Structure prediction request, 228 residues.
Amino acid sequence: AQSVTQLDSQVPVFEEAPVELRCNYSSSVSVYLFWYVQYPNQGLQLLLKYLSGSTLVKGINGFEAEFNKSQTSFHLRKPSVHISDTAEYFCAVSRNAGGTSYGKLTFGQGTILTVHP
Amino acid sequence: DGGITQSPKYLFRKEGQNVTLSCEQNLNHDAMYWYRQDPGQGLRLIYYSQIVNDFQKGDIAEGYSVSREKKESFPLTVTSAQKNPTAFYLCASRRGAHGYTFGSGTRLTVV
Prediction:
């Protein structure tokens, strides 16, 4: 089974400052890794995903994440945030091979990012 | 445009009543999922279906039921046996190994 831990439930930051949202995962098999963003009362929008290859993944809206296999982490970063980045962010994993849990996403608890002017 | 439609967006239910949440997709995806979202707990899997006429329990299936009679549709029924049904419910579908699409959600409130 997989599990995901988002280390910060809330992250306040000032506009134009850099931000890092931390995500650690646990899995006995190889996984795909995802970051999603959710605005109030809306569904999830994919920011980026790691499938294989380069460990640095670039996504939409200037976000990027780095896969670190030895530390089982997939932290999300943005060098300069905007007010519009205020939202809840979810890290998720799914196994990348067959089995009964194939295709199921396991989510972290979420991190609320609040950008202050 | 292809996508997932969840309806209604807001739903109110009296205690003791069953209620059905709709999820329709026109993406031709085989797999579909229902998640429940509560503040501070992330999204938890209720039920999923890999193919028509087949579905499996997720991590928190008690008090819920589903059907998958058509590829496009995966309705979720919240029964009176669900002790704490007030939550935000998200439906998703999957293409291939990692192509997920989410609906915009239904907020269910028990009054």
Remarks:
- Chain A has no helices and twelve strands.
- Residues 62 and 78 of chain A are 6 Å apart (CA to CA).
- The interface with chain B takes residues 4, 6, 9, 32, 34, 36, 41-46, 49, 51, 90, 92, 94, 96, 100, 103-110 of chain A (CB under 8 Å).
- The radius of gyration of chain A is 14 Å.
